[in-house]
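Record minuted for everyone:
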Amino acid sequence: MAIIADEQKRIFTLQTQNTTYQMKVDPYGYLLHLYYGRKTKGDLSYLLTFADRGFSANPYDAGTDRTYSLDALPQEFPYLGTGDYRTKSLIVRDSRGVYGCDLRYSAYEIRDEKYALDNLPYVHKSENGAPGDEGMQSLLITLKDDRLGLEAELCYGVLPQLDIITRSVVLKNAGKERIVIEKILSASLDFPEGKYDVLTFYGRHAMERNRQRQAVSHGIYSVGSTRGISSHQYNPFLILAAPETCETAGSCWSMQFVYSGCFEALAEKDQYNQTRVAIGLSDEQFSYPLEPGDQFTAPEVIMSYSSSGFGKLSRNLHRCIRDHVCRGRYAHEVRPVLLNSWEASYFDFSGESLCKLAEAAKDLGMDMLVMDDGWFGSRSDDSRSLGDWNVNEKKLGGSLKELVDKVNALGLKFGIWFEPEMISEDSRLYREHSSWALVVPGRKPVRGRYQLVLDFSRPEVVDYIFSGMCEVLDHANIEYVKWDCNRDIADVYSATAKDQGKVLYDYVLGVYRLLEMLRQRYPKLLMEGCAGGGGRFDAGMLFYTPQIWCSDNSDAIDRLRIQYGTSFGYPVSTMGAHVSVSPNEQNGRVTPLETRAVTAMAGTFGYELDPSRLSAEEKEAIRKQIRRYRRLAPIIQYGDYYRLSDPFCDEVCAWENISSDGTMVVVTAVMQAVHGNMTENYVHLQGLDEEADYKVTDPGDTGLAAESIYNGAALMEGGIPLPVRMGEYHSYQLLFEKC
């Protein structure tokens, strides 16, 4: 059993293959956290300590016992109203404006299945019978406040084979008066002792998810987003780690928010050297009312623990997201190699030029042509026509169906770009429905990229956009959609909302509703999420789109860092990555074509360039790259991923992919620096069978001889020397087969 309930002691224990999570209902009905870490047995309530601490308040129920204070005890769901002055997971306000509640244990339920969430993404049973399905269970613990009639159902999901525990909270107003939620964090973890580091992933547009590691010190360290999307600036994901933790050793815990809007993630060290980490909704511009009978569901959090370093933690999360977050055909299928029109022509294209692109793509061995921005309304630049999803047949020289049929006749699939959440002031839609934009009355709006944001908290707006998209998708054989979102939300005002504090949360629910309607209507459609690249790269979007454009920056060397940081929480199969031109159009860097290719292969792989500008030698190189990708893609996208170096510190960036059966190993390395009288760099493999031998079946340009055989332990301990080559940014890729 993954979940054990000791009713006599009122202790709940969650067991996975390698971890234990335990909590206890104390004599006063408070739910205290006991332990989360390496697998253990027994009653861990002995870890609780009690002392008379000055200025730490005592609940009235404790009577004269001044040693009992929730200001110093570890809790499962800390809330305002108990005398705990640390970060709260819940703050509510009653109909009189009084803050706080008093939630006590009421009941529990164990289910032999993973709970589901209404209208939100969540970890689910796999669609392909993955190992993580075995032993999956849920624990639902109900806490009640009798004065308010407030009920909090704490939801725990256990995937024992993957060392994954999920958490969510459902709040129900079972009383007779309105309650307002002012703050809610979905998961909180308390550690009564120990020194820790916290890892977060920061960035900016075109340089997302840079890893940052710092010691947890006294006070609160917090990252988050108030932008309406999860953001380029901070990812909704954190890791807590022992100071000595590295890729292959040490304890670390992760929290990953399955949500695509505003969030907060924090680490706090209190006056007694206790550490609390938590993640959930941002409370800025959030104030959510619950009328009698209403309920509110907090988005899910995926948690995992590893005693074997960051690499094992990441692989736990990769398996969970690949098999239990992503859905549909392409969750487990190698993606088509595509040519995207954006950097080939930007807005300047025609049906004829697109057909020429398609012919070039076919000649190079690609699978799909994607028509990016500029095909609708009077869209000739980024200042107009968003919201007018009608095909510009004059620009295309005919109907969309005619164009798609021509591309299909070449043997290629066809894809198309949308930006459903946005509206241009210069558009037919805005002239007819200006109140559908998020604009504060009496004030000029804040623009972003010349555009405003549609009010997706309103069902009629979502339904209108769905109808417009269907009008396009129903009339041509479109097999891929790139969903873009090119600005943050600044003006939060809905013309129909009675409570503006609901708008940002309901907006995200509207995005999810549109995505789900499209998914249901077009189950074979491959959808790629995008928000100016990686501005909404989160587990919530991956529930609807099995891949996300990792960054608008396609420079191979910058991508090494972007994809490295992304890999801590997200699998390779979710990272949209393309080969683009050199010098790169984002930063002017010159890199070899082979290096651009192997870097993009550490993602979904495609091209974003004009083949007519390539030399015959470059075209032949691309043909070979595509053939190699098709051979290696099942290993790279659906095998186990290992980070072999740190591109922020090391001269070489190296990574490894091992097939699911352990028989094939792909090692890729890119040199980031070259110097006079250059020293050798060695790459040490990971995850091999120490007793087995491995044969080099494709040495690439590494200096190793094909068919050479090496011992697994030798490859991990001694490593592989990379030959020194003249010039910048050379790459190496080789394939081993277990003998």
